[in-house]
Structures are given as structure tokens and as C-alpha cells.
Amino acid sequence: MDDAHQLGPDAAAEIATFAYELGNLKREPRKGWRQALIANPESVADHTCRVAQLASIIAALEGGDPASAAHMAVWHDSQETRSGDNNKTSKPFMTVVDHETITAAQVERLPEAVRNALQRTVTEFETQATIEAVSAKDADKLECLFQALEYRAAGNTLMQEWIDDSYEALKTTTAIRIADAALVTSPLKWRQ
Amino acid sequence: MDDAHQLGPDAAAEIATFAYELGNLKREPRKGWRQALIANPESVADHTCRVAQLASIIAALEGGDPASAAHMAVWHDSQETRSGDNNKTSKPFMTVVDHETITAAQVERLPEAVRNALQRTVTEFETQATIEAVSAKDADKLECLFQALEYRAAGNTLMQEWIDDSYEALKTTTAIRIADAALVTSPLKWRQ
Amino acid sequence: MDDAHQLGPDAAAEIATFAYELGNLKREPRKGWRQALIANPESVADHTCRVAQLASIIAALEGGDPASAAHMAVWHDSQETRSGDNNKTSKPFMTVVDHETITAAQVERLPEAVRNALQRTVTEFETQATIEAVSAKDADKLECLFQALEYRAAGNTLMQEWIDDSYEALKTTTAIRIADAALVTSPLKWRQ
Amino acid sequence: MDDAHQLGPDAAAEIATFAYELGNLKREPRKGWRQALIANPESVADHTCRVAQLASIIAALEGGDPASAAHMAVWHDSQETRSGDNNKTSKPFMTVVDHETITAAQVERLPEAVRNALQRTVTEFETQATIEAVSAKDADKLECLFQALEYRAAGNTLMQEWIDDSYEALKTTTAIRIADAALVTSPLKWRQ
Amino acid sequence: MDDAHQLGPDAAAEIATFAYELGNLKREPRKGWRQALIANPESVADHTCRVAQLASIIAALEGGDPASAAHMAVWHDSQETRSGDNNKTSKPFMTVVDHETITAAQVERLPEAVRNALQRTVTEFETQATIEAVSAKDADKLECLFQALEYRAAGNTLMQEWIDDSYEALKTTTAIRIADAALVTSPLKWRQ
Amino acid sequence: MDDAHQLGPDAAAEIATFAYELGNLKREPRKGWRQALIANPESVADHTCRVAQLASIIAALEGGDPASAAHMAVWHDSQETRSGDNNKTSKPFMTVVDHETITAAQVERLPEAVRNALQRTVTEFETQATIEAVSAKDADKLECLFQALEYRAAGNTLMQEWIDDSYEALKTTTAIRIADAALVTSPLKWRQ
């Protein structure tokens, strides 16, 4: 990075402000699990981490670029610092702007290189036109399915809706086959 | 993906097994914070999420590829399902194999495309020879600094060691300037 | 209750369904506290309980009916099972219907006596035209102020905004004087 | 409120002191659930919130005054800041004064209007001579039954005792029919 | 153990029953900390563990038997499965039988060897006539002081009462000197 | 304790430092339970408390000294402040020094009386040559079995491995018979 492009204090402050905002994803419990009587459910950030890992794996198997898929996953719920984590129980009562609009507001004052990178990434994910974007979205659903199976193994009896809804939303053969395997694999198998 | 490369049930089961293993990162509390008297500290996955976001931002500003940096961040602590989260208090009493060896064991039975992608990513991160790898490592430290500042704002009085150690480990000008800004920015500024 | 008005099984099922919905208030953490870095903040139900108690006290002192004020407090956030707990950070990005509309949807299939009682109560609270309604709203703000002072005593350094905003929203002399006293009273004084 | 009756600073301090005491209900986990192996059970305040909501509903259906029933519910466990939440496992080993005595001690120094309102409310609840008092007590038991069913749906296998004991304590036809419905209604039905 | 003394199934069932009862100490949060606004305070068992460790250390330094002192500590709060954790805020409102009576009830149906050992241990602790009993009681207070200092370091501002009360209750020179040192030692010093 | 042996300020500071280190056992969640999808599992100190209680009971029944067995239990996991709580999933990837070496490092600067007492206790436990040491180790396994049964009663479906492994490790007839009884006794039986 040459001097002309070095980060000035104002731009650095904008990034710090945004980083603090992103910290809220670590403290925001996922709404669906609360409704399903899960005490102390995972955070949005917890979810995001494994979504990104699964996006990388699915993209690799689907012949896409793992890094690009993971990158979309990393930002795919970052709008929830603003909108919260809404679902079908809230939707009849509210109109929420689309993710690209929220991202635009979040990155408005960030340096151009960051602003462009994030907006491009969110737009690619929302458009769902590349194999990486499809892999990232499948990873989002597949992660939810794994978590539902884990909560079911931990005792919760209300997980079927989340298992079914996640499964039915899967698009790639890869993700469907991993989901099929997840249904018959013990969460403890890796320990053997 | 043509038929010849489609995921078979055995390979799918290996990936499901690995995905359950990765779930442990969502339940593993970060060790340093426990030692610093933080009740219910963030998980390794919580940390990983913002590391990946910061890696993307730092790489964009340093002229690197945001996706590649975020991708390394996504996998940089994935070995902790095996080794746990060790630090200077444990190191005199144990010898832990390097991250690449743990990753090799974790991905041993995964399909070649995944195995190669993950090993290459971990090796690039550990080698620290690209701007993206340096950005990802700086993101790791910078995220820790932000979290320490957040815990300090939440009341904890023991955070100076983590703030200093994180700050001193930063390599890029971008990360250092963000850290400087973080020290003087309120965690609530984004809400205004 | 004479036989003609006894609750039939369908009506009972509607009430049970609504009671399960209300259970979500016990698991919904208050949003503002999460943004202010409070780990494991109180639930909406936790908040509601002391709001109702304070509403009873304020109304008694303001010459109103304590039961009526407490009753409005009990239902004042019951819409959040649907809308979630939104605040100034979400408002630019969403349009939420008013509380009376949500209540109407929630009670639509409940027996007429319940439906009328709840809609009347919510409307009285939202209209703010009676001393009891004003007492209940002041109790809502005053409870938030007490909780902010408690979180501050527990260490959190970011509470000033909530203390100030709550204080400034108070309408009755009674609530203002209790708030003034709260600012200079130890949370442990009752134990002496 | 005319000037002669305005709250003086000493009286305001007494109310603030009492409001801090009431805050303990938000932090006191319900004892029975801990014994039944529930991790992180609901607080007394969590319980109180839905008791008051159910009291309002039952009273409306039983032809009583919803506000009065809810008001009794709001105060019915407020003595537990002093006595704790005792049950059959503690009773052979301790003698606890009655609720009215504890309330008398709690409100002793509060302004007369508050003192009278609270003592009258607690006495009405303890005497169980009005339909509102009976509705509030039934709401207490019914809420416990709902919570037991929710904990059972969340996995806990030890809930039968609480379900049975709560059910058997119900007095009104309304509450019994709601309980019958609760037993066969999914906690997720409201979401459809 | 010769055959004549082997544990029969009824006696084994009584011990299992008691072991499940003791499990409640792991889930019972310490009451004082809840009153002092500590979220998720330690359990009675958490406290007991360090009390026993400190009792061992104090007794060793006071010339007593470490094992005997630790053993008294291990059982010193075991009555709280029945009585709960009461303190000065509850005492005016309840009469609780003494610890020896509760222990007698708990061990009534256990084999004689266990019954005698536990009753002797509890009586020795309550009588406070041996250096080991005094060491165990000092360990109880000293542990509370350490925990108060840790909660203060974690941000809580209300700990002075617990620090002072614990300090003033200490009897042995050893415990007083450790307390003096605790006040000026960082909770992080052991990590250096 | 005569003057010549009184604890000096440096020695007191070393003990305070060690007591803060021991506090980490209260905050360290047990690793196996996290892997088995237990949210918020017990701490190492929670576990230690009931191990010590069971060690006391087993030793009494096996004709050993309850205090000595409990004392070994109190210190048997105290090394985990340094090594963490490692298990079969971590062992292929790390070499950890033995417990006696860690204890030696922990007590190195403590007064001789404490140092000797702790090292002797840890060595006796690790050597497993006395009935008290065997009782303490059986108590460690038996406690794990009780906790697994409790987590299973609370809903978790993955406990069989822990139940079996704990059972198979038991050495004394006493512990085996208590385990047999535990398998068929309700965790709620003590309440009747």
C-alpha cells in the first residue's frame, strides 16, 4: 500500500465503528431457536462461522472457488445488526428493506476499497447467480440443519420443522448428500 | 459437477462427521477470557466470524484479495476442536503438534478437492508469506483487541494485557491504524 | 360462569396457543442491553414484571387505580413475540405495524371476553389519556432506568445513554422523584 | 396529585430502595426447576409475567375483573426477595412467616397510599375469597404447567410431577380446560 | 471389605439417592452474589471446591491435618440442598433448624459407617473446637473474599461489604495474612 | 503456630497467587460435556465437589479414611488450570507432562508445609496404592456417571459413552454397587 492510499484517522475511525457494530453478531441469539425453546441458543456469529466453513467445502466440491463462497457467507447475515433476526412470525407485521440497502448504509462512510468489496460480495450473494453464491446459500441452510440435529441430540423435541425447512431449501447435489449423511451420522462420530 | 465427480455416500458421511466436529468451535469458550474472569465468554466461532470480517476489510485496504484473507481466517482456529485453546499458561506443560498436522488428520478422509483446498489454505496462513495471510493474522489479533475493549467497556478491569499483546502483534499499517481508532471510539458510536 | 359461557375445547386450544406464544417473552433478551455489551441480559418478561410493579406504585401515588396501571404494563410489550424488540438502530430499515394491530392479530381467535379486555387494555395504554396509562408508561421508562443503574453497578460503563433517555421520557412528578432517588440510592440498601 | 400529597425525597428514597429489592426477582431462578435438572431456569419475574397475563385471561373468562386478577399476580411472589423460593424439600427444616407479614415489612416505610394498596392486594390474594384471587392463583399453577410442558418439549424427562401437581391444584373450569388444551397443543402452533 | 460388610442393593440405592441430592449443590447459585447483581454467579459446589483447597492449605500452615480440614469443608454447605442458601435478608422471616439436624435427616438411611463419618464431620465443623475446624471455617470466609475480589476485578462495584464481612470473620493469623496478600495481588499474577 | 513459623508477606502472596489460579477451576467447563452438546456444562470445580463427597462415602464403606480420600479428590484435577481438560480427542496431538510435574510447578514457591502436603497428596492419588486413593479415583468416575445420568434425564441423548466408560473404570465393589443403583434411581427420589 503506497502512502497515497494509507488509511487516515477518520477512515480508521469509521472502520472501528463498523467493527464494533459487527460485534453485535456475537451477542445476538438466533431467533428461531429461542422460539423452539432452546435456552441460550447460538449467536448469529456462531452460525456464520460454520456457514463459511461449509460454503468453502461445498464450493470446492461443486467446482467453485472456496474462498469466494466462504467470503459471501462471512457477510451474509451482517445486516442483522440493524434489522435483527426476523422470521415468518414477524414478517406479517413488518416491512424490512433488502440486505443490499442495509449494507449500503453500513459501508457508506468506509474507504472505497472496502465499500466496493462488501457491496459486491453482498450483491453476488443476494443475486444467487454464481456457483459460489449458491454454495454459500446452501451452506446457510445446511448449517441450520446440522444445528437442528445437534439440538435434537441434546434433547429438544421440536426440531423437525427446522430440519425439513432447511433440507427442502437445499439446491446443490453436494449439500443434499451431506444433509442425507448428517441425518444418519452421530454428532460424536468424529471423536472415534 | 459431472456425474463422475458426484459425492458418494461415504464421502458425504466423512464431510458430515467433519461438520459435526466443527460444531465444537461454537461451544468452546475462549480460554484467555476465562482466565481474565469473564463469565460466559465468546466461543471460538464467535471470534472466528469477526476475524474473517476484519481480514476481508484489512486485505481490501492492503491491496490484497478480501475473499482469500477471509477464507484463511475462517479456518485459522479450526484445529482447536482437537488441541483446545492453549496459551502461555499451558505451554510449559505440553507439546502440541503444529496446525498443519492437525488439519491433515482432520481432512485425511475428505474428498481430494476439499482436502487440498483446506490444506493449502492452512499452509498459506501458517506460512505468512502473502498479504492475505498477513491480513488474516492481523485480523486475528485486531479482533482480540476489539473484544478486550468491549469486555473493558462492560466492566472488566483486567484487559490491559490483552489490549497490549494484541496491539504489539499487529504487522500492517492498516490494522495498527484501526487499532488506534478502536482505542478512542465508543462501542456505541455505530448506533448514532 | 354459567354453562352457556363455559370455555369449549376449541377456544381453550386458542388460549393455550396464545399462552405458548407469550412464553417467548421469557426467552427474548432485551435488545438495547445486548447492544450495550451486557452478557445474558434480562428477558422482556423480566422487565415486564417490575414495570407492572412500578406501575402499581406510581398509580397509587398519582391517585389512579394501581390494578389498572399494572394490567396495562403486563400487556404493554406482549406484541414483541411478533415484532421483536426493535429500537433506533433498526427503525430506519423497517416499518412495523402499530401495537394495536399486532394485538388484534394475536387475539383474533380468542373468546370475545378476552379479546375485548386485551384490546381495550392495549388501546388505553397506547392512547395515553388516563393517569393509569401514563403511570404504566412512566413505569416502563423507570424500570429501564433502574436496570441501567443496576447494570452500571455491576460494572457496565455504557449505561449513561439509557439512564438519560429513560429519565427524560418520564412524565409524572412521582416517577421523576423516584428516579432522582434511584440515582443516589445503593442497590444494596434494602438489605440493611 | 396536589402539592400536599407530592412525594418527598425520603419517601422517594424508600420507593427506590424497594424497587431495587424487587429487582432480585429478575435474578432469582425458580427452585423447583433447578431440582429438576433445568440448566439456567427462568427467574421468578419471568414466571410472574405470564402468571399475570394468564390471570387476566382467566378472570375475563370467569366473569371477574382482569386488571384486579393481574394485579394480584404481579405481587404474589414479591415476598421471595426475603424468603427465597422454598418448596417441599425445605419445609421440614424451616418455618417461614406468612406472605402478609413479609409484605408488611417490605412496605412499612412506603407512603400510605402504596402501603395500603399492596397490603390489600396481597391479603386479597392470600385469602382467596374473590373470583379474581382464585383466577390469580389458578394462573400461578397454570403458568407452572405451561413451563413444565415447555421444558419437557425442550427435552427434560422429569416434568411429570410438576405437570400433575399443577393440574391438580387448579380450581376454575376455565383453567382446567386451558390445561387440558395445553397438554395436546404444540408450543410451536402459534407460529403457523 | 469382607463379605459381611458389603453394600446391599437397598443401601446402595440410599447412597445413589443422596448423591443425586448432592448434585443440587452444582446447580444452586450462591444467594449473596445474586443480590449483589452478579449475573450467573458461581454454584455452591464451585465455592465448596476452593474452600476445601484453602482449608487444606490453612490447616497445613496452622499445624493441623490438611485432609481433615478439607473434609469438613467438603461437607460444610451440604445442608443447603434442603435449606437453600439463606442470609441476613431472609433470617428475620424464617427459622431454620441447625446444620446437624439437617445432616441427620440426610444420612438417616445411609449405612452406619457413612452416617457416622458424616455426622462426626459436620459436628466437628459446627463445634469449631479443633484447629482443623477453625481452618475450614476460615477457608469458607477466605474463599468468599477471593471470589468478591474476583467479581470486583470483573467489574462489580458492590463487593466491599462482602470483602469486609469476610475479612472480619477470619480467625487464624494464616488466613488473615493470605487475605492481606489477596487484596494487593492481581488475579492474573499466576499467569506470569 | 509459633512465631517462627508464621506466614510472612512473601509466602502469603504466593498462596494468594495460587488461590487465584485455583479460581480458574470454577470457570473451566468440563470438555467432554461440551463435545456431547451440553450447553453451559458444569465446571471442573463443580465436578470436584461431588467427587470429594463421593470419595468420602466410598472410603468409609471400603474401610478407609474418608478425610484422606476426600482430600485427594479435592486436588485431583487442580492441574487443569495449566493443562486444561484434555481427553481422547486431543491426546493424539499433544504430549502433556504428568500431574505430579504440574503440581510441583504450582507449589514450587509455597511454604514447605503446604508444598509437602500437596505433593504427597497428588502422588498418593496418582500412585493408586492405598484404598483411599482407589476410592478417590472411583469417586471421580462415579461422579461422571451420575452427571451423565443427570444430563440424560435433562434430555441429552448422547450420554451412553460416558455412562459406559465411567462404569467400566470402577474398581471397588462399593462404587460398582452405587453405580448399579444410580442407573435405576430417579434423580428426584431424594425429594420424596
Secondary structure: elements and pairs:
The structure is a homohexamer of 192-residue chains.
Chain A: H1 9-23, H2 31-35, H3 44-61, H4 66-75, H5 80-83, E1 94-96, H6 99-107, H7 112-127, H8 131-153, H9 160-169, H10 173-183
Helix pairs in contact in A: 3-4, 3-8, 4-7, 4-8, 6-7, 7-8, 8-9, 8-10
What is the quaternary state of this protein? homohexamer
Helix content of chain A: 55-70%
Strand content of chain A: under 5%
**What would you call the shape of chain A?**
globular
Q: What distance lies between the first and last C-alpha atoms of chain A, to the nearest angstrom?
A: 48 Å
The helix/strand class of chain A is: mainly alpha
Q: How many extended strands of chain A?
A: 1
Instruction: Pick out the low-confidence regions of chain A.
Output: none
The main pleated sheet of chain A reads as:
none
- How many alpha or pi helices of chain A? 10
Average predicted confidence as pLDDT of chain A: 95
Radius of gyration of chain A, taken over Cα atoms and rounded to an integer in Å: 18 Å
Major protein interface: A-B, 72 and 72 residues
